[in-house]
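Table S5 (text form). Sequence records supplied for joint modeling of the two-component complex.
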Amino acid sequence: MTRTVRIGAGAGYSGDRIDPAIELASKGSILYLIFECLAERTIALAQQRKRQDPSNGYDPLLTERMEAVLPFCRKNNIKIISNMGAANPIAAAARTKQIARQLGIRGLRIAAVTGDDVLDLVRNTSPAFEDNSYSVESLGERIVSANAYLGADSILDALTQGADVILTGRVADPSLFLAPLIYEFGWSLDNWQLLGQGTVIGHLLECAGQVTGGYFADPGYKDVPNLAKLGFPLAEVSENGDAIISKVEGSGGLITKATCKEQVLYEIQNPAVYLTPDVIADFSGVEIKDAGYDRIHISGATGRPRPATLKVSVGYQDSYIGEAQISYAGSGALARATLARHILTERLRNHPLQELRFDYIGVNSIHGDALSHATCEPYEVRLRVAARVESLKQASLIPHEVEALYTNGPAGGGGVSASTKEVIAMLSTFVPRELVSHQIHLEVS
Amino acid sequence: MLLRDMVHTRTGDKGRIVTISLIAYRDEDFALLEEKVTAEKVTTYFGDIIDRPVDRYVLPKISALNFVLHRPASQGVTRSLALDTHGKCLGYALLNMDISSSDPV
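The corresponding structure-token record, covering 550 residues in total, follows.
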């Protein structure tokens, strides 16, 4: 029988459920547990936390996750790989060492992978942004972060040094899964076919529950059992790169050709040209076949030589948003919400707003007027107003004006909610890969 | 016939870009799907939600089409004023497309 490596996905985003990860660590017979926790903007927000407190800047759920899974991972010899290091992998590793010791786990080798923070490089070389209405010079001090997408090779170095837990900052999501496959099977870093196939496996797993029935259910069309106890996926990968996607028996959700087809195309543009730091993967020939109950066989991805550049996400202070909502219900709800909108438009007319948006929630707020087809007058309507402004003080105008509709606006308004926030927005650029290097920092509990 | 009765969909996002897959429930419907849901039709369907024609990719091995939508600059996920900043709900708008007539919408 050929050897397979079992890899589980413990999280698909920073705030994801923790119990499915415990289930995988305790019952999944897995060798690796991977937590993908870093959305595009997450690292910029983490960078801001690190500036306020140099010992912070890693994933807010790191402690809870490690406390939950470390005992099982130790018992079952499971290695953990995660980008929960966010803006501060070294502090995340130190925190993990502390947690391991508190749990009585000694000798755990914890690696931090750094090198993704390329803010100095971006400032010094001013690469052009994809959106050419901005430049490094014009943004100046408003830039808060610049992180390159490192590849599987960075994690591979930590595995080679015997790490049991690997915490990274920005690493391409599929690379988190590809690295242990390269390590276990000794795949060559220029075997583009295997790297392409490993990348599709990583891509299928990286959103965790999204391949096991999460984000899939559509009653009457696509029913999914037991979503409250959704199991997270694992892949049983063979040396030739073929894999079976499955989950812990008895867990909620389902794995079918349909769930895998949706996830294989998720966030993919041209399926034949999926750029990662490791390979230009080609998913266009992927075959998805039944291999038993809740078991799907994946094969047929391939790849071409990796790009010469690395993608860099740059976070910058863009603007502020003030937002508020008020509800109207019963007879004439839409007419009263419309009157409220007219009043707000007039009240806001002489203020310096960069952008102003009104929505009628329940009527047109999601798809806009052209695509929203009401067949009858809605029973209730929630008017929403959002404005982009230059300062937090200006943003507070929106909550103020909407609250004032209680006593100054149409009849029967209720349920005002309001918020103001700073907008950290993201831009993309590319840098030559030879200008970016990674480092491994090892701690032992 | 509405697309909803023939295909299922998932929507993804990357900044200003929204991706929508349409996957035939039955492999034998794929040829009709490919014929009826052209890039031109989808571009017309989304109107001013997008600011340039959609790209369409054809995946016969999994009986799927993949559409790439480009939204205006202000509608990127990290700065949009919209409720659904990602555009994650857009796939279900497309499922309302009527494919029984030759009319684009």
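Note: Chain A touches chain B through 53 residues (CB under 8 Å).
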